[in-house]
């Protein structure tokens, strides 16, 4: 039988090597219901076996009251010790069966829950690997992460409730059979009263849920406030404002407290009603039963067993209600999951990809930029977005020109035509996807050694042209892994990369040298330190063509001068493009290109270009910006 | 070149000695005999327990980040909180005891009903039935009141605890806040507050209620029939060892599980947020593998707690259900001898059934309380950070800022400043330049009174900056870093930070000074508009203007700008330039500069190399200095 963690091979399989596997078919994303069915299929027989075990686990509850009643009638009342022994043995036997299958059920329920939970998280990771930078164009990051962290849990909960509700349905029917066979009259009372008892609590559930929703939203606002205070703590402790924000937090805390109490009061109403109705039900049952006993239509033992069944039957009905709730929540989650898993990468590799010759001229058709092999070319532009766009083109990335369409929040929006809104979102998503596909599949417009990047395989483009842009991120791990994530470098190579990026001070500042720990996203390092480690990592890749966007924007002039000089030396003989306006880079460049909008307006050596007024103004503009901080 | 990297060879790993993610002994053997399989399972269970102990120890005494309090502090904290609500606590106990007590009368009366049916052919059953209805009504009423009080109690306790934590965070020493990473604090105010909430809000009241119910049930059982109660209670008590073992080990297991899930989330968040980086560097395989590794580790934690629960269930499922059998056998014997009535047997069965629920719950809540205690210990640890200053009474006489013989070390024995002397002239612009790691940011922090120098002093008007009360210090010197966080709150909240009682006119004046009054006036509720994450969005330029208006309100005579060029986004520089000038006008400014043109326009320039000021003078003096560091750099910049 399947076990956790599951094996997931949809969307992505590790490249190359003996371990390479076929990519499995993707999940069924034709709709939320189909997706949930697909999720269940991934369980194999686990959920169904769990259902069977669940029935056996309930055996003491199904058979117990009957056995007890039988023992009273046939053993205790007539004083038959053998019958008592038999009844007790039977009761002990079902207790043992219940305990054994209780453990078996628990094991399988944990298993099915985790297969769904881990499986969904693994799917999201693989989807991110498959889509790369295109994924954030399709869905907001927060939604992608919440599919992995909270929706996955709903799918797990669904598998559990299916097994539990399934087994309780079976035992409910069994108990119904027993009570009807014993006393049709009382049986009908039990079978009708149990759902009615539960039903009377239903009208109170709606106000409770409404208040719980308010409580949840106030609590999450409260968490945002606390996180916000911590995020701005340096300012609050440096400049002030502790009282204001402490009071803001206290106000929100008190309003969350009030919401919690108001939800708690409704919860108390429901609990009290539960006590009242089940108590009254028991009395009613016993009173009716007593009259039946007096009339000779029922034995005492049967009366006692009815008491047991009356208590038991409230359980399954509560479970059926829970089933409806959890499946609804799973459907909402499935809709979010479908929005993440449905999009496909826009890229299509050509049938016969042309291999790239890295030692060749790189030409951008749009701007007319020409990068000669083995040279350091610096691209200067007054507008950072222009160079960012150029760098995206050189590396064959889709430009940052769209906002993802959010899916979440629908269940909170009251009223209106939900279906129409859903359709509208789907339409907008399809539109973006179509636009991306069109861009991705035609000729790309950038040629390396005369070959359009669109005619090569995307994997080869990524290997040949490495773009390290301003969004480059550090990952948690050791400094060694940050500089050498592929674990391909020798120590000497890594040292060379680290020193070229002038990041020795990061090495010195972290206890443990290469094994020093870097927190997630490089938190704990200063902006300048992060930037230099990112640069060291890019240099360590030793890419045939390296494009660096503003690689030293957060470091001081001394360091920048050193980096420019060392990087030039380390990259000598290989094609390097640096986008910056810093003079400290410019005069190391073999060639400087001035970009205006999407056009190259001048190129040459820095010294020669200085006579060009347009060039001077862009380079001087870099200096202007500093003056404001005087 | 490599001589500068100390211990590089010693700390570099070739990954050959890396342990596997999952210890191979944690994989069940195939084709082994039954006894071998059992031994292998025991070994796996012990390995998982060791891991849980390790994670728990890490949560209780982390080697990095903020301190963690001990168990005694947690107990003291809650004792104090409960002590302040003694009346409410007493009401909670009383009402829930009444609810449990009335609930326990019902089985007795039902037993009475059975007896009358059997022995007296149903005489007076209607009267008993009505009595039960009355008792049930009372029980429902007490349940309602008891639940309301316990909700109120739990929510009060929770609100006080979290408000205490946030107030503590807002009192953290300035020096520590400036230096430390906030990641650990974020984890504490989100995950640990969440865990604490669950145990304070539900765990504590529920544990009290369950305990009351269990205790009263035992009493009721004994009152019903000692003969029936004692054997049942003995059978139930056989589970004590298993329950104790579970309670001793399980909380660590759940803490380990929780840690494994936050690791999964952290890795995935990095993968998704850094999707572009992952793709650009070809790291997809690594990220997928790392995600799978995290899940494999988490699965081991899940298997551990699953085994612990199974071990517990095996015992309590039998121990809590067998009393029915015992009641049957003892009941038959007692009935045969005339010591017991059928009604007593019925009541006893109802009691043992009613006892297993609260017992189960009690075990679960004790579990939850222990997990919550660990989180609470981590939260209370924040309060154990000692204050870094004890403000004196002396107030500065004058505005002159003088630094003498400043030395400072982050790690003992590693001074980053080696005796810096500096006298700021009132109203001057001083640029500080130097390579990264030279100590210029540290100098800025000492000059703004964030940290206390190891030797020497930084004084304003003759008083040490670090001896000034914070509210005075803030109006003398302000350190401006690259952060321009916009807080969740109103526009006013975001601006009045340094002088929280500022009237609206002062706020408008500040906004006008930075040129932000127009757009603020156009906001839906003016100064009362809520801004910050998730509220009314501001453009980067507007966010910068808010940050500048804060400083206008603070109105310090001296500003230390560290990397403040990054405060100005190049894309918005033009519009913010004027605002910045409005702020700097008439103040003494120390600008720690990235760009040389900042230095060019300053009145004086200090070049900091290796923790010393090596050059100090105007641009022209320094450029003309033969062989000077600044002169060389300037030539490189302008050539």
What attributes characterize this protein structure?
heterodimer; A: 630 residues; alpha/beta; ABC transporter transmembrane region fold; Rossmann fold; 6-stranded mixed beta sheet; 12 strands; 7% strand; disordered C terminus; B: alpha/beta; 4-stranded antiparallel beta sheet; 22 helices; 10% strand; elongated
Descriptive overview:
The complex is a heterodimer of chains A (630) and B (639). In chain A, 64% of the residues lie in helices and 7% in strands. Chain A is an alpha/beta fold and 630 residues long. In chain A, α3 (59-76) runs antiparallel to α4 (81-131), α3 packs antiparallel against α10 (300-341) and α4 (81-131) packs antiparallel against α6. Chain A is elongated. Chain B has 639 residues and is an alpha/beta fold. Among the domains of chain B are: 67-225 and 340-384, ABC transporter type 1, transmembrane domain (ABC transporter transmembrane region fold), CATH 1.20.1560; 401-638, P-loop containing nucleotide triphosphate hydrolases (Rossmann fold). Chain B has a 6-stranded mixed beta sheet with strand order 6-9-10-3-11-12. In chain B, α5 packs antiparallel against α7 (183-224) and α18 runs parallel beside α19 (573-584). Chain B is elongated. Mean pLDDT of chain B is 89; it is low at 566-572. Classes of the chains: A alpha/beta (630), B alpha/beta (639). The interface between A and B is large, with 181 and 189 residues.
